[in-house]
Every structure is written in structure tokens, then in C-alpha cells.
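REQUEST ID: PR-0412
SUBMITTED BY: lab tech R.K.
PRIORITY: routine
TASK: structure prediction, single protein chain
INPUT:
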Amino acid sequence: VLYKEDFERNKGKGFSVVADTPELQRVKKTQDQISNIKYHEDFEKKSQMGGEGSPTNAFGNQGFQPPARSPSYNNVPEPEHSAAAPLPSSGEKRYRAVYDYAAADEDEVSFADGDLIVDVQQIDEGWMFGRVERTGQQGMLPANYVEAI
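STATUS: complete
OUTPUT:
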């Protein structure tokens, strides 16, 4: 009864219902991923500055070790300077996955670390559209999970 009275008193006073649309879910998931990556980058920097070996947990056991290479946020992937990497003859950019990614939406594409991504088009600063050469699937993919080759 008290909750109902409180509800009636506050009805229309700044409460708004936000629909949980697929786009809003995608934005939330992307923000969570970026936050997680940033957290691990900061953790890696702190552990490198400390001069200690691998991080340990409260019990003295070795804990989580972040990836040796962190993704780039500047939207300009660093080219790999390797004589073994073939350059595309058509002049189109090719990318290599540096992390595994599981598609979170039907318009996205999953790939594994090391997969080649071709026919790439930049969508915005965080997303690309491309085709995974290994599987032939094409769709959206996060730009910070790949690097230009």
C-alpha cells in the first residue's frame, strides 16, 4: 500500500521509461568492452612500472595476466613491417585479428586471433565492415581487435 501511494505521488515527476533497444544494448556492450580493455591497459602499465614479475592475487598465486599487446584506440592501426606479410595486389587494405571476437549481434562477424579480414570498410571510429577470409562471413567488427598488414 505504501509503495502504491508513493508511486501515485511521484507519477509524472521526472521518471521516464527507457526502452532497451538493440542499439542501446549494443552501445552498452561496446562501452563495457572498452572499459574492460582500458582497465587491463592500466593494470598492465602499473605492473610494468612496479618492476615486479607477474601479478599475484591475495593468496600469493599468479593471477590474471593481460595480453602482451593492447588494442589501439586511435583508429589508425599500426602497419606490420614484416617481409613475410604479402601485400594485396589490388591496393585494398587487409587486416589481421589480434584477439578473438564473438559476434554479439546478427550483423556482426566472429573471428579468431590471426584471421585475415579483407574487403574492409571503415564505419566509424570503433567499427568496421569486412569479410573474414577463413570463413567467408562478412559483417561488422570492432576496429580495435584488428591491425593493418
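NOTES: The CA atoms of residues 40 and 46 lie 10 Å apart.
REVIEWED BY: pending
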